[in-house]
Amino acid sequence: MLKNYLVLAFRNLVKDKFYSLINILGLTIGVTCGMLLFLYVSDELSYDRYHEKASRIYRIVSYITEPDKINKWTSTQPPLVKTLKQDYPFVESYTRFFGRGRTMFRLGERRFYEEDVYSTDSTVFDVFTYKFLEGDPKLALASPRSVVLTEKVAKRFFGDHDALGQILRTDDTTAYKVTGVIQDVPKNSHFTFNALMSLDGNQRNADGWGGFYINSYLLLSKNADVKKLEAGFPGLYDKYMSSIFKRMGIHITYQLQPLTSIHLYSKFDGETNGDIGYVYTFSAIAFFMLLIASINYMNLATAQSARRAKEVGLRKVMGSLKGALVAQFLTESVLLTLISLLSSLILVAALLPFFNQVSGKEIGYLALLTPKFMLIGVAIVAFTGLVSGSYPAFYLSAFEPAAVLKGSFKARGGSFFRKALVVTQFSISMVMLICTWIVYQQLNYMRNKDMGYDRDQVLTIDYQDRQSQASYNALRKSLMDNPNIQSVASASSPVSNIGGRVIFTVESSTGMKEMAFKPTQIDHDYVKTMGMKIVQGRDFSEEFPADTTNGVLINEAVVKRMNWKNPIGKKIMLGTVPADGKNPPPTAEVVGVVRDFHQQSLYNPIEPLIMIYRRANGVMHVKIKTQNTKETLAYIGQKWQEIYPSRLFEYRFLDQDFQSAYRADELRGQIFTAFSALTILIACLGLFGLATFTTEQRVKEIGVRKVLGGSVTSVVLLLSKDFTKLVLFSFPIAIPIAYFSMDKWLQSFTYKTDMNAWVFLAACALTLLICWLTVIYQSLKAALANPVTSLRSE
């Protein structure tokens, strides 16, 4: 019986080659995109799950509540996890990561700069699971001055030679012994590293509760009471921190974040992660693409009902039961889906490298052989084959044989259903079109928004530590001798990544008050080099030597927060006053106010910033002219080596830093755009097929109209108007859905574009244009045909 169904199904597919091709093409595109999006979503959901104890690992995050704001940080104080381990038996282990940032290693005369280097507890490999290629995880960081490298870094340092036991020296000439090499950290991790170093004595024994500068993780025992642990956090404040923070009106508490939820659910200051919203969005796109492809099949199958009516009537007269007919039509749709699935598997394999490039993923071909991927293939066949075939199967099998064979049969109900499906298709397509438009508007807004400084042609060179004034001045003087270099300045951090907060004692309307502000150290050329604007007072200047000890600049956000009407001359103590009142920090005065500028990406609000004058700092910014860029860079490198012969010269352009902050969103935007376009293409394929069939059904009517004097234009309008009405009907359905969806999405941005009415009007016009372009070929073909041909049999 099954063989008979398959033979008949294959014959029917071959018989109607044109409609079969449209259905197979639409389903292939839909299934291919659905599978690629499944791989993307699956990768997003897999973050950090490769750790054997992932379900028991928690990150601790801090909530610092000031009288006028709440700060949410992923960092904690060093003694926190040690204290929790002592107080709660179900805390099985812990580990901490102290960020070292960009670190230079020496191997003999060779030097290497490495990003993402951390100092960590020796328990790190008890908590997290990393595969060791060399060394013992239990002993790797147990000894002082040990370092564990990733495979990529070990090969860069030592080639194919064994790394274990080798000695590396850091920039401060401290010797570290390589005690382990691990496989590169998988990309589906919420944070990655290139090297882990053992803690030095000060880090290991740090017991101060005033500084938040490490990331802390706990490994809890099975069936541990997480709520009990969180309930004890307020007691930690009372016991260890109230003496430090209570007088400032600052309260601190913590929250435990499950490791496996960090990537998709964590939204903390300075953190770049995924977003569960995109997982839902791409899952919905995959579903809708399959749905639209299924709608195409349903539309064309019901539209061709008159062709299949006699077949159904004859089979019923010959004794075929309704169930057998339903099974036959479902077999046809499942066969169609299987053909599309096989085509899709080939396309997925071919497109995977390109998809990885566009999405920023590293999905391997082995992902196509996993049981989960195979299961999704079976699910697609079941869903698409049965859903798309169900209505035509039950609709066609319900025909009455007597009416069909007498010639008095008229299909009922199919027309309205087809119209509803077309409206559904174009409503979905239009929603995606509007959403794509607004996503790109927002990305363009972020790229072009005034950041409050000039990022063009500015080099950032990281010293890693504060330089002596003499060496910095010598390099600066050499660089300024080049006419292609406009300005040179130094700061304690890059302008696009000023992080951290410290407590200052600030003059307020009620006296001196301790409050947390972002600090940065700059020299007198910084404001000019970065193209910033002084809106009140003056800039730092060498004409005022006292600025180095008793002058500060602030931004407008400080003025707003302090509610100062005249900020110039306001006092700011560079630190907190000790409880005993002895040895208070130096007091400075505000000498100028800088127009607000973004200290981080546009995901973060502009924060109150205090700028302290220091002549030589850890980061140098160099503003160069657009002409002779290559020669200018070579000149800067040469002068760098003359002043710092033992350091590598490495730089990056500030606008590259800026673009990298939005790289993940741009990649998602590209994916969204590509699949939105393909969704519209699938809808148009169905519309093209339906227009072709409709034209064929009305060919004699068109012939009569032409004989009676009907023009080509009138015939084209006649055939197009029905589809135009359906597309127009989709507008009031799509616009509210798109508006509320994008309004919610834009709420996640601190700075966002406006949703202008013209976007919706333009989307409506474009959708209508796409509709007309889709049907106009068949309409013109029918309108230009010779009526004699269509009326010859009459």
Automatic annotation (TrEMBL):
Q: Which GO terms describe its molecular function?
A: transmembrane transporter activity
| Main localization (coarse) | membrane
Where can this protein be found? Cell membrane
Q: Where are the transmembrane segments?
A: 20-41, 278-300, 334-355, 420-440, 671-691, 726-746, 758-780
Where does the MacB-like periplasmic core domain start and stop, copy by copy? 20-231, 431-602
Q: Which GO terms describe its cellular component?
A: plasma membrane
Keywords for the protein's UniProt record, in alphabetical order: Cell membrane, Membrane, Transmembrane, Transmembrane helix
Q: How does it sit in the membrane?
A: Multi-pass membrane protein
Ranges for domain ABC3 transporter permease C-terminal come to 284-400, 674-785
Domain of life here? Bacteria
In terms of Pfam families, this protein maps to:
FtsX, MacB_PCD
Q: What is this protein called?
A: ABC transporter permease
